[in-house]
């Protein structure tokens, strides 16, 4: 049996970019995993902190969130959660919404809602941290 | 142009519910639930920044019967999504792919999430913080 060298139809540029037919390669998959890893410590910190507070009164929660480290971690929590959740719900829309127009509408709506909520959440934390 | 009925690949209905596919869809459902929970989180934060009166309104809303059901649901969703997410990350690096390991880790994830949810709310209830 004669051995023939496999001839690839992919261009050298296509191969080196490694992006495939979707043109973004494994970027989405990686972003989902990396943000997931970042969220393990961030969400556990938030969960524990709220559980360890003596109560959830206005003064108690404000005092806790005014500490620079709490404010920093809370900002990161909101930002990374928005990103991770956006990536996930985007896939859900792509999988279950088939009509092109409604899919596009929902994907764009999600993007706007996440950016708005993340912006509002981060602005709120900064206001608490900087305006006593 | 006439539309012909095309053959379809087997759909969800033909598969038996097992631990693997059940937890896979539960991961999605809890993920979407946490997306809604994220909206609630940002509402709570903006209410906290808005002053004592707005915070009290938000706290009252979250402590209402519907609010508490949502909070318990988000607690379970978070814990399950966390444990099952770690399970997925282990698979991504090639760990725990064997059939028995897959099943065992699945049951551990869901039971640990149930137990941790009960423990969390038991702690809050016991401490009189509800």
Q: Helical percent range of chain A?
A: over 70%
Question: Major beta sheet of chain A, specifics?
Answer: none
Got a strand count of chain B? 0
Could you tell me how far the N terminus lies from the C terminus of chain B, measured between alpha carbons in angstroms? 63 Å
Derived structural class of chain A: mainly alpha
Beta-strand percentage range of chain A: under 5%
Helix content percent band of chain B:
over 70%
Structural class of chain B: mainly alpha
Number of helices of chain A: 5
Q: How would you sum up the major sheet of chain B?
A: none
Terminal CA distance of chain A: 81 Å
Q: Shape of chain B, please?
A: extended
Q: If helices are DSSP runs of H or I spanning 4 or more residues, what is the number of helices of chain B? A: 4
Question: Uncertain spans of chain B, ≥5 residues at pLDDT below 50?
Answer: none
Using CB atoms under 8 Å apart, which protein chain pair has the greatest interface? A-B, 32 and 29 residues
Write down the Rg of chain A: 22 Å
Q: Beta fraction of the residues of chain B?
A: under 5%
Number of strands of chain A: 0
Describe the structure.
The complex is a heterodimer of chains A (132) and B (130). Chain A contains five helices and no strands. With 132 residues, chain A is an all-alpha fold. The mean pLDDT of chain A is 91. By secondary structure, chain B is an all-alpha fold. In chain B, α1 runs antiparallel to α2 (52-62) and α1 (19-49) crosses α3. In chain B, 75% of the residues lie in helices and 0% in strands. Classes of the chains: A mainly alpha (132), B mainly alpha (130). The A-B interface holds A 33, 36-37, 40, 43-44, 47, 51, 55-56, 58, 61-62, 65, 74, 78, 81-82, 85, 88-89, 92, 113, 117-118, 120-121, 123-125, 127-128 and B 28, 31-32, 34-35, 38-39, 41-42, 45-46, 48-50, 52, 55-56, 59, 78, 82, 85-86, 88-89, 92, 120, 123-124, 129.
